[in-house]
UniProtKB/TrEMBL annotation:
Keywords: Kinase, Transferase. It comes from the Bacteria. The keyword Nucleotide-binding does not apply. Belongs to the FGGY kinase family. InterPro entries: ATPase_NBD, Carb_kinase_FGGY, FGGY_C, FGGY_Carb_Kinase, FGGY_N. Residues 256-443 form the Carbohydrate kinase FGGY C-terminal domain. Signal peptide: none annotated. This is Carbohydrate kinase. Residues 3-246 form the Carbohydrate kinase FGGY N-terminal domain. It comes from Paracoccus gahaiensis. SUPFAM superfamilies: Actin-like ATPase domain.
């Protein structure tokens, strides 16, 4: 039996998913990876622990699959993009990994907007540098942690670190390379681009195609993971692109939407087009670009509400063997059937407007209940996705949406997205879209598939069509949501200045 391993390392969980060549999931294993927030805006994790937990997840998946490790034909990793994972000149981790939720460089990114750096970067790289961009974090380190900056030997992304742990190979892939330092037209590094940020001479990793075999599982990695030594490993790809590929949404006529930790909204184009509202990053192949409009403002807000405000009820449900999410959905559905003035900005960890924007409920009344608040949270998440999708609609032609992410499994959420976006929305039957996107690259690298886009496409569960009445009502609510954002813009910096850390 021929199997493929896709590794998907998110911001809180690292997963190993074993697929057969038809795309059927044969085994899945997850391990949590602890985050640390040692100071305001710093979101980090231990790189060695990330590898340890990922290796354990691989071993768990192999055990659950009950097939010999020799059946794994190839491996690929995908992981959260942006952020920073540094190695020193000996190849050892240089401090903790910095996650894409980190915003320590937010003030620097704001300053770049004023001094012209942002405009120069947009023209050359196809994107505006933001708080968690490698360019911004590296420049922040140069100013605030010069000893660490001076010791940099290699600049990697999260999945590149995992590939290094598996193979000993230091490098990146075409999609990940474009997070900061590639020319938007040539899709390759250009020496003048790091200099835009004051980073001339930066050691940048070698670029491979996502489906290119770049190494093989070492004896040391095999001992930790249970994989067979010598198993081919391909370069892998950025998780935003992997999610579009694995959900069946990597297509020029489709906007692929992931309602996960990040609000991810993307479409493929054969003509690069730059705009402050999206990143124009490299696609899977040269001559393809992936226009991404994203922000850290999606389902993580819903998870925060359940974790923070529903902890007691969740614990009680789990003690009875119930899934709390199944209990809460009817409560939200009932709230959707009632009138409500509640509006929520889902900006707990960031926003399209920048890192100083913060989350808030508006229009609350004393007689409103938890269901109304949760309805506002989910609507706010969908409204934020609409802001990104509307931006992409201004630049690209697409007529359909492909939706994935944990929230999309709820019928009322899928219908809500169709109503808010005012377009058909198809949900995917593939629960592990990013891992499958990585596996498609792995399979292509060893000849199982002709190309990453020519493997088995996940089947659709259903297509949701907008209801004209609900769409009109939600458009009115979206207008209030957007106007509140404009009204709050001058206040967010003042609110942010109130923060204290004890």
């Amino acid at each position: 039996m021929t199997l493929i391993l896709g590794i998907d390392s998110g911001l809180t969980v690292t997963k190993a998913v074993i697929f057969d060549q038809t795309g059927r999931v044969r085994a899945t294993a997850r391990r949590r990876v602890a985050q640390s927030m040692p100071r305001p805006r710093h979101v980090e994790r231990d790189m060695v622990d990330l590898w340890r937990q990922t290796a354990a997840a691989i071993a768990d998946a192999l055990a659950a699959c009950e097939r010999p490790a020799s059946d794994i034909a190839a491996v690929a990793a995908t992981a959260h993009g942006d952020g920073l994972y540094l190695l020193d000149r000996s190849g050892a981790p240089l401090g903790p990994g910095i996650l894409s939720l980190d915003s320590r460089a937010g003030a620097l990114a704001d300053h770049w907007r004023l001094d012209g750096t942002t405009d120069r970067a947009l023209a050359r790289t196809g994107q505006m540098p933001h708080a968690s961009a490698p360019s911004a974090i590296l420049c922040w380190l140069r100013h605030h942690d010069p000893d660490r900056f001076a010791a940099i030997g290699h600049v990697l992304a999260c999945k590149d670190w995992l590939t290094f742990c598996l193979t000993g190979r230091i490098g990146t892939d075409l999609t990940e390379a474009s997070t900061a330092f590639t020319d938007v037209l040539t899709q390759a590094y250009a020496p003048d681009i790091p200099a835009i940020f004051g980073l001339a001479g930066l050691p940048l990793p070698e670029i491979a195609l996502p489906d290119q075999v770049v190494g093989h599982v070492t004896q040391a990695a095999a001992a930790l993971t249970g994989l067979a030594p010598g198993t081919p490993v391909v370069a892998g790809l950025h998780d935003v692109t992997a999610s579009a590929l694995g959900s069946g949404g990597y297509d020029a006529g489709t906007v692929a939407i992931v309602a996960g930790t990040y609000s991810i909204n993307e479409t493929v184009t054969r003509t690069p087009r730059s705009d402050p509202r999206w990143f124009c990053r490299n696609g899977i192949r040269p001559g393809e670009w992936n226009a991404m409009s994203i922000s850290p403002a999606s389902a993580t807000n819903y998870d925060w509400f359940l974790d923070t405000l529903c902890a007691t009820d969740r614990a009680a449900a789990e003690a009875q063997g119930d899934v709390f999410a199944a209990r809460i959905i009817p409560e939200i559905a009932a709230a959707m059937a009632r009138s409500s003035t509640a509006i929520f900005h889902p900006y707990l960890f960031g926003a399209p407007q920048g890192p100083q924007a913060s989350a808030a409920f508006f229009g609350l009344r004393g007689w409103q209940d938890r269901g109304i608040l949760l309805r506002a949270v989910i609507e706010g998440i969908a409204f934020n996705h609409r802001q990104h999708v509307d931006a992409l609609r201004d630049g690209f032609a697409f007529t359909r949406a492909r939706l994935t992410g944990g929230l999309s499994r709820a019928t009322l959420v899928a219908q809500l997205f169709a109503d808010v976006l005012q377009m058909p929305v198809t949900t995917s039957a593939m629960d592990e879209a990013a891992a499958w996107g990585a596996a498609l690259c792995a399979g292509t690298g060893v000849g199982i598939f002709a190309a990453p886009t020519q493997g088995p496409e996940p089947s659709a569960t259903r297509t949701w069509h907008p209801d004209s009445g609900r769409s009109a009502a939600l458009a009115t609510r979206y207008g209030v949501y957007a106007d509140l954002g404009h009204a709050m813009a001058p206040l967010w910096p003042r609110i942010d200045a109130l923060q204290e850390w004890s």
